[in-house]
């Protein structure tokens, strides 16, 4: 039955026949979820309850570690049948994870065509359009009529991932035009394809970053986008269901890099030791860096013992400029991520951030100035002025760096999210503390005279 | 021509006829981008260069403020024609922004059917499935044959947002089953729909949160999902192009809330005063809060002047537990966002975070302990032990709060991202400083005896 989230839930089924019926009736993704929750032994049993087609469908939805488990526990014949029937892109993803030996054996068993398809995809680097595309699409030769096209599509639908677009190629397999199933349906059969097909085909190359491909499909509301090689020959398509996943992956990656952590969508559920492995290195590295910031304070212990209110002010200074930096950083990284911002906007944004930064800096400086006045004993009122000025500088630097660093990285064709929040705040603290304490001790020395 | 991002760019066109040709040849979204860049006066001119259909298509892609500008500058007849031809969901979005008076006038001019459609959508609250759905879908009565169905679809394609799914309803308009265009195409015309249509239709209700609808479509790889009312009557569909936008919106909202900022995807490009308005309040509120944290230090100024190394240690303490909190927070919020984590996992995650938190806390405590040893003068070595213990406690609390707070909010059906990074780190600092300094002064007093 449907849970209130609309998902289908299997609750405490003990009767195997009942389970079998249920598992074969469920949508593959739900059956997959159910099986994934079981123990390895139960998984093997449950999976054997699936009838041929359901097994194939469910297998594609299983987590990779479960797929590997099953490949180990099923008979070679079953395994081979499963792998042969997977769509090339999912198969490639699976092969990525399997031990090289197993992959080699499986590849050999595949039909020449399927082997070719998988090899092609595996040939492209992670994160490129070539790696996420599928090689199963509808290709039409030029000069067909609408009727002939529809018949061709009808004839070999089965193994096509989408039939909603058909791509027209010339004799050299070069991509010429695209026609939608919608157009085909609403045109008289004996019209020539070339009369209705659109010559302007938005396409990506095999080495286009997957995120860029996804953004293009989003921009043009495409259900699929063709992938071509350097010679503009059609080699595959990316379908919209992959795009949805890609966009979520990218967003998750941005969020996690900004927070100085990794692990992907499942990070929240990974076991403790994995969590520690994924987070501790970042934290230790950051402490290491932060020693730099803190060491900037060490030499001034004398000053602090004389003006202890500094110990109250410095955290506010650090915390606030840190927040400013994170704000600018997140907004910029996300803007670049969704394609709202391009490196071309650098100047525009720089100008804007400088103005906004100045305004913010002023407001925050005044705030801290007032606070320092309240906290400092009468004879240390002057500290307020220093605090305010350093706050102004630091906040301004924070806003500028938070914007410019990711823009710069993007320009260098690097990942804008490389500069994580923790890293940036650490740098800012180092600078902030140093300026603040140097100015204070300078002031002290001048007063001593 | 195509820019390297695959977008189409118009560069310095001065000849109006050339511009007209270009604008009408471009994909609507690109023409829209070009026009949006122009000055209001130029926009009105450029827009008048578009032929009827292109104008309608382009209008839907224009930013809302530009749409409003145009509605002001065009003749009522043109405006009415544009609005009448918009798809109901886009029209609803536009009406949201327009002054009530204008909306009222436009609604009156609409055909009864179009008015009804828009009114329905506007009737549902922001962020629900009802608000983002379109009322233009293919609906089939039960008992039709495949052939009849295809003919019906052929007859009134024009104003349907997608024809790739057709929804079968009973005499009370209740949703009964769904059939894909693919199925229709690959079945003999005189088969009855009910023989091939799937009874198990994943659906959402008008009041389902848009994010939930998007996650369902992602889960089941749907190109459209039907929206039903309380009586399970079909009232609209959400198409995959909207889902892509919804998922990106949600991710952006999470990122920005985590960073304590707002403004949506375009935040990076908004003018300085807007940026300040969007960010400064958060920052000032945070300083306000942070005064609490800092005030925790104020009473201990005496202690600090005696043991100035504290001023070196405290920033590390605060920075590190802050990072731990942000990591846990981001991972949890994102996990909830993509539906990987549900409130049901609370216990599982709590157990895991406690273990991971302990491990992390231990490692970081040792690290800080060693550092304090290095910085403290011989007679203050004991500070290292206090520092290490407080670090351990604080980091552990940070990891737990960073995970549990968003889970708790989700359980209360609130937005998990409500607890922003800055807010959490401020709380942690307050607690951390207070514990640390109290323990230190306690130790001092004991040694004084």
From TrEMBL, chains A, B:
SMART domains referenced in this protein's UniProt entry, alphabetically: CBS, MgtE_N
Function as written in the Swiss-Prot or TrEMBL entry: Acts as a magnesium transporter.
Homology family: Belongs to the SLC41A transporter family.
Membrane topology per record: Multi-pass membrane protein
One MF annotation (Gene Ontology) recorded for this entry: magnesium ion transmembrane transporter activity
Compartmental location: Cell membrane; Membrane
CDD domains according to UniProt: CBS_pair_Mg_transporter (cd04606)
SUPFAM superfamilies: CBS-domain pair, MgtE membrane domain-like, MgtE N-terminal domain-like
Ranges for domain CBS: 133-195, 197-255
Annotated InterPro entries: CBS_dom, CBS_dom_sf, Mg_transptr_MgtE_intracell_dom, MgtE_N_sf, MgtE_transporter, SLC41_membr_dom, SLC41_membr_dom_sf
Protein name: Magnesium transporter MgtE
Listed PANTHER family: MAGNESIUM TRANSPORTER MGTE (PTHR43773:SF1)
Gene3D superfamilies named in the record: CBS-domain (3.10.580.10), MgtE N-terminal domain-like (1.25.60.10), SLC41 divalent cation transporters, integral membrane domain (1.10.357.20)
Organism: Chroococcidiopsis cubana SAG 39.79
A UniProt-annotated Pfam family: CBS
């Amino acid at each position: 039955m449907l849970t209130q989230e609309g998902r289908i839930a299997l609750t405490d089924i003990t009767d195997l026949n009942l389970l079998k019926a249920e598992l074969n009736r469920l949508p593959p993704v739900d059956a997959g979820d159910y099986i994934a929750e079981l123990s390895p032994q139960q998984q093997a049993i449950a999976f054997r309850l699936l009838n041929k087609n359901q097994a194939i469908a469910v297998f594609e939805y299983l987590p990779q570690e479960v797929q590997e488990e099953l490949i180990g526990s099923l008979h070679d014949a079953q395994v081979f049948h499963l792998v042969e029937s997977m769509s090339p892109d999912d198969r490639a993803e699976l092969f990525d994870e399997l031990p090289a030996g197993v992959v080699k054996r499986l590849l050999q068993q595949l039909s020449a065509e399927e082997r070719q398809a998988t090899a092609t995809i595996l040939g492209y680097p992670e994160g490129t359009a070539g790696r996420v595309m599928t090689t199963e699409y509808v290709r039409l030769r030029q000069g067909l009529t609408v009727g002939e096209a529809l018949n061709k599509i009808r004839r070999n639908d089965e193994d096509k991932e989408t039939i909603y677009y058909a791509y027209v190629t010339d004799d050299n397999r070069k991509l010429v035009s695209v026609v939608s199933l919608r157009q085909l349906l609403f045109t008289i059969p004996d019209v020539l394809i070339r009369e209705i097909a659109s010559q302007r085909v938005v396409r990506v190359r095999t080495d286009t970053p997957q995120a860029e491909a996804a953004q293009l499909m989003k921009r043009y509301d495409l259900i699929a986008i063709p992938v071509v090689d350097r010679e503009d020959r059609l080699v595959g398509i990316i379908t919209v269901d992959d795009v949805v996943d890609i966009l979520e992956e990218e967003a998750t990656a941005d969020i996690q890099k900004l927070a100085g952590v990794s692990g992907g969508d499942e990070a929240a559920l990974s076991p403790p030791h994995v969590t520690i492995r994924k987070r501790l290195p970042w934290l230790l590295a950051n402490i290491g860096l932060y020693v730099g910031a803190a060491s900037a304070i060490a030499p001034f212990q004398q000053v602090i013992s004389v003006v202890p209110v500094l110990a109250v002010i410095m955290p506010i200074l650090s915390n606030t400029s840190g927040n400013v930096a994170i704000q600018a950083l997140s907004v910029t990284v996300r803007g670049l991520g969704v394609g709202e911002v391009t490196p071309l906007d650098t100047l525009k944004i720089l100008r804007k951030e400088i103005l906004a930064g100045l305004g913010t800096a002023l407001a925050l400086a005044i705030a801290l100035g007032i606070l320092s006045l309240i906290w400092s004993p009468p004879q240390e009122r002057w500290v307020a002025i220093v605090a305010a000025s350093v706050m102004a500088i630091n906040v301004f630097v924070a806003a500028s760096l938070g914007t410019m660093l990711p823009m710069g990285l993007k320009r260098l064709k690097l990942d804008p999210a490389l500069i994580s929040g923790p890293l940036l705040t650490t740098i800012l603290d180092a600078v902030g503390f140093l300026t603040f304490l140097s100015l204070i001790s300078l002031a002290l020395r001048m007063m001593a005279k």
